[in-house]
From TrEMBL:
<dbReference type="InterPro" id="IPR036685">
    <property type="entry name" value="YehU-like_sf"/>
</dbReference>
<dbReference type="Pfam" id="PF06794">
    <property type="entry name" value="UPF0270"/>
</dbReference>
<protein>
    <recommendedName>
        <fullName>UPF0270 protein EDF85_1749</fullName>
    </recommendedName>
</protein>
<dbReference type="InterPro" id="IPR010648">
    <property type="entry name" value="UPF0270"/>
</dbReference>
<comment type="similarity">
    <text>Belongs to the UPF0270 family.</text>
</comment>
């Protein structure tokens, strides 16, 4: 299920994004400050380039590039 980013509380969204950008394997040696990485993800969400996907089975959220989301989930919007 896709979750509209603007329906999350600001603090919840920030924590979700911070978790994503600090996860193992996401920095690739990048020294970009955390605030900048968070801002980039926020901008991608605002532009529709990224989405928040909630998995009902695992009860967890994922941030994905829009092109990585199965088409049937995008069609349900």
């Amino acid at each position: 299920m896709l979750i509209p980013y603007d329906q999350l509380e600001a603090d919840t969204l920030t924590r979700l994004i911070e978790d994503f950008v600090t996860r193992d394997g996401t920095d690739n040696g990048d020294d970009t400050p955390l605030e900048t990485r968070v801002l980039r993800v926020r901008q991608a969400l605002a532009k529709g380039q990224a989405v928040i996907l909630f998995d009902l089975d695992s009860q967890q959220c994922q941030l994905l590039a829009r092109h990585e989301v199965p088409r049937e989930l995008l069609d349900d919007q």
